[in-house]
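Regression test case RT-17, inverse folding.

Input:
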């Protein structure tokens, strides 16, 4: 939670005093890394990937890793400094960023000038830190950040942290350090490899990630620092699987991170048992939590340890009465599922294997278990969508509402449905990567139709995505180096609405390319090697 009315130094001390480490860290290493999250403390400390990389670097011999965050309320005129020692970022040989969301690019571009680090990589010299970026954004599409980033860590932190630490230990001159990083698998260095990795082996940068067989052997990533100053407030997060088996044609995680890597139940429970004295709250992290084959043993084991359990999202076909009973027994009354589309035909088109009958059956189970708040993740603008498909969203929500109300009346407590409707955003790597964003006017009309329909529907709370936000998000996902002036303008504080208006031609050429106009419907969702090679992310390959 925010700490208003304090100076930056007082805020830092208060944050540090409230933290509880789940592993001893000494910060005595000679070689230092500043690891940043380009958002506020409460957002960054809620990110398991950021916390896990922080742990991995600090586990390396003679390496000391400190944290920093972007906080617009920070009144420290001295520039960004690390939380642990208040050291300026420019004093570190390596400044690393974990960027999970393209929306944080703007804060990344603000931090470097505030830290008095030259923004463009070509303007940095021997006295400047190396700037490294990892996280989901790096492995999806590093192209937009290449003017400013010295190196990208592309893949799982467990596969990359040791190599990066080894280069840091060598204390090499800047050019030699970049060459040494470029020689590591999974590290993309634009100054060495070229803007499209022409200088890399076979013109490809191979993302380093776990294989499925490694899942049972690995330590499950889990929270390094518990703190009350996040929305999660002292909750232990444990990753039980990475990637997704669902393979929906719009989802980058299913394809860019395939195959799915599942952690052994015993390993999850070992972590939970060891850290139970520190907290009674735990959150299981995975793209589809209930898809884990040992989810029931995991949940039962956590319940025996008297944890209050939270699940990030539940795959519809994996919902069962025993799973719901465990969650309901601890007082949980809210759940989120993702039907994605309003009818079975469109779900089949996007490879979402959920029939209308199955969906109703699972919502009946949810309502019977006593859940009174059900969030539905849905999309409009999906490839092949018709106006009737949009109206089917209204019919579907009404059908599910009636099921919830009928069960709620039996218990004397009526429930609420929350249809959260986003625009379909084409992203790199899945089969739908070459699809276009829906025409903005049509998208606006569909969202207005839904808003009006749900406004008249009792026990329904509608949440829709603003159209300008959809355009901007779609652009951030697939942009290339042409985005440099637009991102720099965004970093000065220009609102998204104005950016979309002033750069409409450039943005639309990326999110609604002319080449996609009149595309053969039969070819939708079919991987196109030529299009992939020509894309800004075309040099990325998987191990």
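Golden output:
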């Amino acid at each position: 939670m925010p700490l208003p009315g304090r100076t930056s130094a007082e805020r830092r001390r208060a944050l540090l005093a409230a933290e509880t480490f789940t592993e001893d860290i000494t910060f005595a290493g000679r070689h230092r890394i500043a690891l940043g999250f380009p958002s506020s403390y409460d957002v960054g400390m809620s990110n398991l990937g950021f916390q896990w990389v922080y742990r991995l670097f600090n586990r390396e011999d003679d390496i000391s890793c400190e944290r920093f965050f972007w906080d617009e309320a920070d009144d420290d005129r001295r520039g960004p400094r690390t939380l642990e020692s208040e050291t300026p970022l420019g004093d570190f040989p390596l400044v690393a960023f974990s960027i999970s969301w393209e929306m944080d690019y703007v804060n990344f571009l603000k931090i470097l000038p505030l830290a008095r680090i030259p923004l463009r990589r070509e303007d940095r010299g021997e006295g400047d830190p190396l700037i490294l970026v990892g996280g989901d954004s790096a492995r999806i599409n590093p192209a937009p950040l290449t003017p400013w980033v010295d190196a990208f860590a592309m893949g799982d932190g467990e596969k990359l942290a040791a190599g990066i630490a080894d280069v840091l230990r060598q204390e090499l001159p800047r050019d030699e350090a970049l060459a040494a990083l470029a020689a590591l698998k999974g590290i993309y260095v634009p100054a060495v490899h070229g803007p499209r990795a022409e200088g890399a082996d076979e013109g490809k940068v191979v993302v380093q990630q776990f294989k499925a067989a490694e899942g049972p052997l690995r330590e499950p990533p889990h929270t390094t620092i518990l703190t009350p100053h996040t929305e999660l407030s002292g909750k232990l997060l444990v990753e039980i699987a990475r990637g997704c088996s669902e393979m929906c044609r719009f989802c980058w995680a299913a394809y860019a991170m395939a195959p799915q890597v599942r952690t052994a139940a015993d390993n999850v429970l070992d972590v939970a048992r060891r850290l139970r004295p520190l907290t009674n709250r735990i959150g299981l992290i995975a793209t589809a939590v209930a898809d884990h084959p040992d989810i029931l043993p995991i949940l039962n084991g956590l319940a025996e340890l008297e944890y209050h359990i939270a699940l990030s999202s539940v795959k519809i076909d994996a919902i069962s009465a025993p799973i719901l009973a465990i969650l309901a027994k601890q007082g949980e009354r809210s759940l989120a599922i993702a039907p994605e589309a309003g009818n079975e035909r469109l779900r089949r088109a996007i490879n979402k294997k959920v029939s209308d009958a199955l969906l109703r059956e699972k919502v009946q189970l949810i309502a019977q278990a006593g859940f009174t708040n059900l969030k539905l993740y849905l999309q409009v603008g999906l490839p092949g969508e018709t106006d009737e498909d949009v109206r089917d969203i209204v019919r579907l929500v009404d059908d599910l509402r009636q099921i919830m109300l009928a069960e709620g009346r039996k218990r004397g407590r009526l429930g609420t449905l929350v249809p959260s409707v986003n625009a379909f955003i084409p992203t790199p790597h899945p089969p739908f990567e070459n699809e276009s964003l829906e025409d903005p006017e049509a998208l606006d009309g569909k969202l207005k139709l839904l808003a009006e329909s749900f406004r008249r529907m009792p026990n329904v709370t509608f949440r829709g995505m603003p159209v300008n936000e959809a355009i901007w998000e779609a652009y951030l996902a697939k942009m290339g180096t042409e985005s440099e002036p637009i991102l720099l303008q965004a970093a000065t504080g220009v609102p998204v609405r104005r950016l979309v208006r002033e750069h409409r031609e450039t943005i639309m050429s990326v999110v609604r390319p002319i080449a996609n106009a009149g595309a053969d419907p039969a070819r939708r969702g079919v991987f196109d090697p030529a299009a992939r090679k020509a894309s800004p992310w075309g040099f990325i390959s998987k191990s």
